[in-house]
Specification:
The protein is mainly alpha-helical. 74% of the residues lie in helices and 0% in strands. The chain has one domain (12-151).
């Protein structure tokens, strides 16, 4: 994994949300029967996806407040490696989301069937989380990269 300065650490709220989601999923995997089996299926597709996100998709979000204030500095260039990787891997990340959501829908059915509200709400929350990433976070990271390149007078991302 690329080593980045402290300026490019995952913003606290995003890291906390990932940690809380993972914690709830771990509890669900310990359930017996259909809920536990469905949760384990979610875990199999979610864990590698979360690792990728935390490596290269979420750290660029730390720059958004500075970029919104028009603050662009030359040291921001190093985050472009992560953003380029996100752009390159975006189709796979979106495919991961399809697999995760399909697994979550099975967990949702199992949780509702056993009247386990906590896990039904968790599944719904994680589906919304995936939508937020697709519709807001990933595009914001890509736009941040384009903005940094523009402001630093750099050419477009290498092909």
């Amino acid at each position: 994994m690329e080593t980045l300065s402290a300026n490019f650490q995952i913003p606290g709220p995003l890291k906390s949300e990932h940690d809380e989601l993972h914690s709830t999923l771990v509890r669900a995997t310990r359930e017996l029967g259909k809920i536990g089996a469905a949760a384990k299926a979610v875990e199999r597709v979610l864990r590698p996806h979360f690792i990728k996100e935390e490596q290269f998709a979420l750290p660029p979000m730390a720059l958004l407040p500075k970029l919104a204030r028009g603050e662009v500095t030359s040291d921001m260039e190093e985050v472009l490696v992560l953003i380029d990787r996100l752009e390159h891997e975006l189709p796979g990340m979106l495919n991961d989301h399809k697999e995760i959501v399909a697994a979550l829908k099975l967990l949702l059915v199992a949780a509702r069937g056993q009247d386990k509200v906590e896990y039904a709400e968790f599944a719904e929350q994680l589906i919304r989380h995936a939508q937020t990433e697709e519709q807001i976070l990933y595009p914001a990271a890509i736009l941040a990269g384009r903005y940094i390149r523009l402001k630093l007078g750099m050419s477009e991302r290498p092909g």
